[in-house]
Amino acid sequence: MSRIQFDSVTKRYEADILAVDNFNLDIHDGEFLTLVGPSGSGKSTLLRMLAGLEEITEGEIRIGDTPVNRLPPRKRDIAMVFQNYALYPHLSVRDNMAFGLKRSTDLPAEEINERVREAAELMGIEELLDQKPKHLSGGQRQRVATGRAIVRDPAVFLFDEPLSNLDAKLRKHMRTELQRLQQTFETTTIYVTHDQEEAMTMSDRIAILDTGTLQQVGSPREVYNRPKNTFVAQFIGSPSMNMFVSKLDRSGDRPRFVGDIDLPISERQAESIAARSDADQFLLGVRPEHIHVHETSVEESVRAFVDIIEPLGSNDLLYFELESNIDVTSVIGNSIDIGEDEQGDEEEYKVFIEPESIPQRYENSDDPVYLTFDTEYVHVFDPETGENLSLDQRSTPEAQTESATGAGD
Amino acid sequence: MSRSTSATGGITIPEEYQYWLSKESLWGWLFLLPTLAALALISVVPILRGIALSFYEYGGLEEDVFIGLENYARVFALPDFWVVMKNTFVWSFTAVVLMAMVGLGFAILLNRDFKGRSIATTLLLLPWTIPFIAVALNWTLLFNYELGMFNGLLEVFGIQGVAWLGRSRYALFSVTMAYVWRNFPFFMITFLAAMKGIPQDLYEAAKVDGSTRLDLFRHITLPFLQPIGIVTTLLMSLWTLNHFTLVFVMTSGGPGNSSMVLPVYIYRQAFIQNNFGVAAAIAVVMLVIMLGYGMVYLRLYEDEVGGK
Fold first, then answer.
1. Residue A402 confidence (pLDDT)
2. Which of A132, A223, A382, B186 makes the best surface tag, with the fewest CB within 10 Å?
3. How many independent structural domains does chain A possess?
4. Of A86, A90, A104, which has the smallest distance from its Cβ to B210's Cβ?
5. Nearest residue, CB atoms, A100 vs list B202, B210, B212
6. Does A235 share its domain with A220?
7. Which residues of chain B have a Cβ shorter than 8 Å from any chain A Cβ?
8. Is the Cβ–Cβ distance between A349 and A320 less than 8 Å?
9. How confident is the model over A224-232, as a mean pLDDT?
10. Chain A partners of B204 at a C-beta cutoff of 8 Å?
């Protein structure tokens, strides 16, 4: 059994730099869990504490049922793949892969050789066994590094941004390959990345970190569809979620949001939002696929102007501006992190459209288009706390247990 | 195509040599000239003169007489010569091995994080900055039978002191100690630099792979030190073979020939015994040995450092 437990784990550097703050997480046996977050979020520190390469300031980490705080790395039964692969340059691929088995087991040489050969076959690097690492390409090095980990057949695999040095195409390919390997071995795997797409596609569960604090844990779908706060909402998903600023107006017959975008909402929702926050304005988060663009005005539509239309193949991405909008950063609390997407262009509004459903002539023209929103997919965030107010509070723990059982199979 | 030739005043000069005759190239040679001249005067001419002399009977004020290989025959027939050869190799080998070991030891210590590390580094580098003549005089005092520190220490433990430089058994060894003390920082600093260049993630990978501390040293640190270690060892061997000052000042090769090494022996043959021809022949023998070392050095340097 190799479940992993992080119990109130804190890491402090030189007494005042808090890298990880009171981190709690239970990782199931055989689960593929991804730690994702921007740089400086503490994800690598967590992995390194688990590996025994960093000391744990407070709290406890358990592998299986054994607390490992005081165990040296070699006694933790883990294998790790490093970002720069960390292949031993003076050793052949074969010796690189055999290194761990020679150090950590008493296996006879033939047995070691056999296991190295098997692992090499699995990684498709048999013909490279006698090469030195310096003669290998980036992709081949990655395979050797992964092969070196699987040959040990450890209780836990640790991956520290293993694909970030590869080009985009190879990265996608290796992603699938690593996933397949993990499914074959059913070894508990912790994977660190800053790439939310990698996290979404590979994991049973994703743990999202920001500035050393756990923001949310859940299945890829759950964190995508039910982000707990603005950070998760914007960090997960590419392009990232659109954020509009609107006031809740309960003076009319039906409550509605008025501001950047106008939306009617149900009385029950308005009630629940008002009960959970006394904010004046709210952030409305809408993913690009939940906005529809029309050429003529329809009921409850919002006027917008097309900036540019990017063809992506299966669909197009339309960038738009509103007639007037309030700067998101002017309303949010100081402590709130609006996660930026990889391009850092959080200011731009985007919507997915069917290819060529909106003619090109709208680009940069004065002719408006009309937007409607799938109101059931609009997330309402408290600008002071960043909390998602539209999530049904009861459902959150349920969803977690659901995804946890889902992860086991 | 004017690839291969171009006509200059009737003479055709192949293109690949044209640069050598260009104005730029000539200016370059002009700037090099003073240095080249000085080098030729103090280095090349004496070497050639020495080689030539080895084939002559030195005549002093008279004309030198050509005697072919006679000087070499005399050298190889000298019983002293073989003793000196043995001493020279023993001394250079022992000194280099000890310096490498001491240097490695301190490099390992200095590669750790501790308070006062930079002060320690500076202190340990200090011997290397001291002129050999000062080292020789100080260590002669330390080895002094009556007043020396070593005999003083032995006395504390109730052991009878030793005439370190005055007994054939200990003389060469004592000089070696002084030499090692003066020169180990060279190894220390090259090893330390090489250690700093080892990527940390290799240690981390090896730790996760089940390595103990000793494994880390044997399988990561040592392989990384090997290339620079080989080159440094060779270079240092060359310098040690060549070394004159410490031996000359501390023992002059004595007692008897017990601490005599080639450079001092050549000096004695030439200037004490006036056998300039024989001294020149020994010097040529030494030159050949050094050239051998030098060639191995260059080969290894290309393979290990300059190479791919």
1. 40
2. A132
3. 2
4. A104
5. B210
6. no
7. 199, 201-202, 204-212, 215, 219-220, 223-224, 308
8. yes
9. 92
10. 51, 53, 73, 80, 82, 86
pLDDT at A128 over 50: yes
The CATH homologous superfamily to which domain B71-306 belongs is MetI-like (1.10.3720.10)
Same domain for A241 and A150? no
C-alpha to C-alpha distances, B151 to A146, B109, B143, B176, B181, nearest whole angstrom: 61, 29, 7, 17, 18
Of the three residues A225, A250, A271, the one that is the final residue of a domain is A225
List A residues 310-329 in contact with B (Cβ-Cβ < 8 A). none
pLDDT tens per residue, range B145-175: 888 888 888 888 888 878 788 788 888 999 9
Return the closest-CA partner of residue B178 out of B267, B99, B264. Answer: B99
Question: What tens digit of pLDDT does each residue of B35-48 get?
Answer: 999 999 999 999 99
Containing structural domain, residue A355:
230-390
Same domain, A111 and A177: yes
Same-domain pairing of A287 and A153: no
Of A78, A84, A158, the CB nearest to B201: A84
Question: pLDDT tens digits, residue range A238-297?
Answer: 888 998 888 888 888 888 888 888 888 888 888 888 888 888 888 899 999 999 999 999
CA distance A390 to B3: 80
How far apart, in whole angstroms, are the C-alpha atoms of residue B217 and residue A249? 70
Side-chain-side CA neighbours of residue B6 (13 Å): 9
Asked if the Cβ–Cβ distance from A51 to B210 is below 8 Å, we say no
| Tokens (6 digits) for B109 | 């210590």
pLDDT score, position A5: 94
Interface confidence: ipTM more than 0.90: no
Report the DSSP pairing between strands A156-160 and A188-193.
Answer: parallel
Task: Specify if A204 maps to a domain.
Answer: yes
